[in-house]
Write a structure and sequence with these properties.
Elements (H helix, E strand, L loop, with lengths): L2 H9 L2 H21 L4 H16 L6 H25 L3 H17 L5 H18 L6 H27 L3 H22 L8 H27 L2 H4 L4 H21 L5 H8 L4 H25 L8 H20 L5 H27 L27 H6 L6 H21 L7 H10 L4 H28 L3 H18 L4 H19 L4 H25 L9 H20 L9 H26 L9 H23 L1 H8 L5 H18 L12 H22 L8 H43 L6
Helix pairs in contact: 2-3, 2-7, 2-20, 3-4, 3-6, 3-7, 4-5, 4-6, 4-7, 5-6, 5-17, 6-18, 8-9, 8-11, 8-13, 9-11, 9-24, 11-15, 13-14, 13-15, 14-15, 17-18, 17-22, 18-22, 19-21, 19-22, 20-21, 23-24, 23-25, 23-27, 24-25, 25-29, 27-29, 28-29
């Protein structure tokens, strides 16, 4: 592990950048007002700033601005209403239930709206144990409003100074994730490869890459100064992102039968040489990612091209010595792998050039794509709200779950002697998520993080007495909390607990042991409530929704395959249509993989047909990979080796995918394919004829020159991809029936509501 590279990536990441911004925005009001002996007002200002800062998620600046303004107004109203109701436990309880339902329901409008809703609940919880009377209610709400406005102004000012920094950091993070995917691909070349493990890692990695690509896509395609005004830096960043997407498609290609390659070449060092070359490519990608984040040009390694040339020479020597009629397919496959490695190396050379931001680069900028088609748009409408006001809606169920569990926590807190039951409510709100698997993981991480952080806090308070040192440590823990809040919740909670302990110790120096024990007890109570709510209150399981993800993946893969295969039939799709279908296929596959991962974390009794589901996900991943590989050959081979006679094969594959969708959706099956065996064998008959000619040449029976060798080396990779794709869709079609039966029978059982 390269710790220096990891360190550079960390200090230049947008996670650290945003953590420092948030920490400054939250702490500065309290620090300044403490000098004027008005720390209590400063703390309230900081609460307002914190709630708005938590909603300042990465995204287009107009979305961030609108989100922060909406949050400022909402937390002001919530603080005002909860302050008004603070004199009555009944009124407060009613508001807790209503607010939890309404603000949890806001998640139907997307992640930013969901974040605003969560922080509206946060400001509600933090004001529950702080009753006010008369004009103090309005003054307290005004302080919260002022704190929110302060952070909004700070964030917008910082953006105006460096408008491209977030895009560069997010794009660099995306490049790093792509490098990680490439490292997993390298594992297939190891002698002791575990294929199931490697494919699982590929699937998980693709989910992460999709999230990062989607963020960059939002930042670039929804930013007016990049897409419309076309500034030089914006054009270069856009070109780099588009090339990164193309690079990921190239890396995603799954060209070969790896088991066959290991049988042919494990006695040599060729497979290990390929693995090392792929790892070098990943290291180059990491350097490009760091350069993007830091804003400095990357340094291209001269060793990579030398190593590629050396491996090619080694391959040629080995081929000339050991090639036979029996292993000629393996040598063709390995040569294609080396071609792919060299192609990726050339693409990395281009990406290295982009990091210089040379003005000559933007001359190649293409503005013919309609970028609006590549980004999602949240529909903020009453119809969407009305459509989700039903027990069938997962968000509606989640909102009821949060409302009931939080109200129960509020009632329980009223019987406890601690006097600060807000921590129970906060634990419930933070842990409860729409999906059981996420809540389960959050529950575990919250408990373990609290215990570990409490131990750290105790040790610090036991050995360190200087308030200035404790204040510095508190700031560092606070920064760490916000660094990991979106990436590693366990680490976030572990850092947040000593941060809160130090904060309360500095405010109330004699009470930290009581606060510590109370926090642990409150966390346990809140975690228990969240766990019970997930199990008992109209639970929502992944098998109830995963069929939608399955059919979406099949339909997107079918469209992607049709656009790629059409080029081999003489009717290529437009660049815009191809890129759009590719994006939709990658997104649908990532969504399916993510849903399957969530299902694995649910109770075992809810994991019906899990073996078949795993095979289905892997088969879809392989289908997308082989289609991506076929797409690579369009420019090189479609004109030379394409033939309208292959249409029956393409239609047959499309028909099998349509049949799988119909089975899963319990619809009428489409008309069967009219392709005959002769139609399906046309491609393979031509391939077999070339193979026989080439084997005859190698055995010395005939001499036909270089034409057969060249045609075979070009035609075989293309034919192999069609064969792999047909095999994948046949496997998917076979899996669809048992999966449909297993999922629908489980859905018929349904759920038993608590009330």
């Amino acid at each position: 592990m390269d710790y220096i590279r990891q360190y550079k990536s960390f200090i230049n990441s947008h996670y650290l950048n945003s953590a420092i911004r948030i920490t400054v925005g939250i702490t500065l009001p309290a620090i300044l007002l403490s000098y004027f002996n008005n720390l209590s007002a400063g703390v309230v200002l900081s609460i307002g700033a914190m709630c708005v800062a938590n909603t300042d998620n990465p995204g287009p600046i107009h979305h961030r601005r609108n989100g922060m303004i909406a949050c400022v107004l909402i937390i002001f109203l919530v603080t005002l209403l909860i302050g008004w109701a603070s004199g009555s436990h009944t009124a407060t309880g009613c508001l807790v239930f209503i607010f939890c339902f309404v603000f949890s329901l806001m998640s139907i409008y997307g992640n930013r709206a969901s974040s605003i809703g969560v922080n509206a609940l946060l400001v509600m919880v933090l004001n529950i144990d702080r009753p006010h009377h008369g004009w103090d209610i309005l003054i307290n709400a005004a302080y919260v409003l002022a704190g929110g406005i302060w952070y909004t102004v700070l964030s917008l000012l910082l953006y105006s100074f460096r408008p491209y920094k977030l895009v560069q950091q997010a794009l660099g993070d995306c490049v790093h994730a792509t490098a990680g995917y490439l490292r997993i691909k390298a594992s297939f070349y190891s002698r002791e490869v575990d294929y199931d493990k490697s494919y699982r890692q590929l699937v998980d990695s693709q989910v992460s890459i999709h999230e990062k690509q989607d963020l960059v896509r939002e930042l670039l395609f929804k930013s007016r100064n990049i897409v419309q005004e076309s500034t030089h830096i914006g054009r270069v960043l856009l070109m780099m992102f588009l090339d990164t997407i193309d690079l990921f498609e190239r890396i995603m290609t799954s060209q070969q039968d790896y088991e066959q390659l290991h049988r042919f070449f494990d006695d040599s060092e060729l497979m290990e040489d390929c693995r090392k070359l792929i790892l070098e490519l990943a290291s180059e990608l990491d350097e490009i990612g760091i350069a993007l984040m830091s804003g400095k040009p990357s340094e291209e390694s001269a060793r990579l091209s030398i190593h590629i040339r050396e491996v090619r020479e080694s391959f040629s020597r080995y081929r000339d010595r050991y090639r036979t009629a029996e292993n000629v397919e393996g040598f063709i496959g390995l040569r294609n792998i080396l071609d792919s490695i060299e192609d990726i190396g050339d693409r990395l050379h281009t990406l290295h050039g982009y990091t210089t931001y040379d003005r000559k680069l933007s001359k190649n900028f293409r503005s013919d794509l309609d970028y609006e088609d590549f980004v999602s748009h949240e529909d903020v409408s009453y119809k969407l709200l009305l459509d989700n006001l039903t027990i069938k809606s997962n968000v509606f169920r989640h909102s009821l779950r949060v409302s009931i569990a939080t109200l129960a926590g509020y009632i329980i807190a009223g019987f406890l002697p601690f006097g600060h039951g807000y921590w129970i409510l906060l634990t419930v709100i933070v842990i409860l998520k729409p999906m059981y698997s996420l809540s389960k993981r959050r529950n575990f991480e919250r408990l373990m993080g609290t215990l570990a952080g409490a131990l750290v806090g105790l040790l610090i308070l036991y050995f360190i007495k200087d308030p200035r040192v404790l204040f510095v440590l508190m700031i560092l823990f606070m920064i760490g909390t916000y660094v990991f809040i979106r990436t590693n919740y366990l680490v976030c909670v572990t850092l947040m607990t000593p941060y809160v302990l130090l904060l309360f110790h500095l405010l109330y120096p004699t009470d930290f042991r009581t606060i510590l024990s109370d926090r642990v007890i409150d966390t346990i109570i809140g975690s228990a409530l969240a766990f019970l709510a997930n199990i008992l209150i109209i639970p929502s399981w992944e098998h109830e929704r995963i069929t939608d993800y399955m059919t979406a993946a099949l339909e997107a893969n079918a469209a992607y395959f049709r656009d790629v295969a059409s080029a081999f039939l003489g009717k290529p799709a437009s660049v815009h249509q191809y890129k759009l279908s590719r994006k939709q296929a990658f997104v649908a596959l990532a969504n399916l993989s993510d849903a399957f991962g969530r299902m694995l974390n649910e109770p075992r009794r809810q994991q019906k047909k899990i073996t078949e589901m795993h095979q289905f996900v892997v088969a879809n991943h392989m289908l997308t990979s082989h289609t991506a590989t076929l797409a690579y050959y369009v420019g090189r081979l479609a004109a030379r080796h394409g033939d309208p006679a292959y249409r029956p094969l393409v239609d047959h594959i499309d028909c099998l995918l349509g049949k799988s969708v119909a089975i899963l959706q319990d619809k009428e099956l489409p008309e069967p394919s009219t392709a005959t065996k002769e139609d399906l064998r046309l491609l393979n008959d031509r391939l077999n004829k070339l193979m026989e000619q080439r084997k005859a040449e190698l055995e010395g029976r005939v001499t036909t020159g270089e034409d057969t060798r060249k045609e075979l080396s070009e035609f075989k990779p293309m034919a192999d991809q069609f064969n792999y794709i047909l095999k994948d869709v046949s496997e998917i079609e076979k899996l669809s029936t048992p999966l449909h039966v297993g999922l629908t029978s489980e859905q018929e059982v349904g759920y038993t509501p608590l009330f």
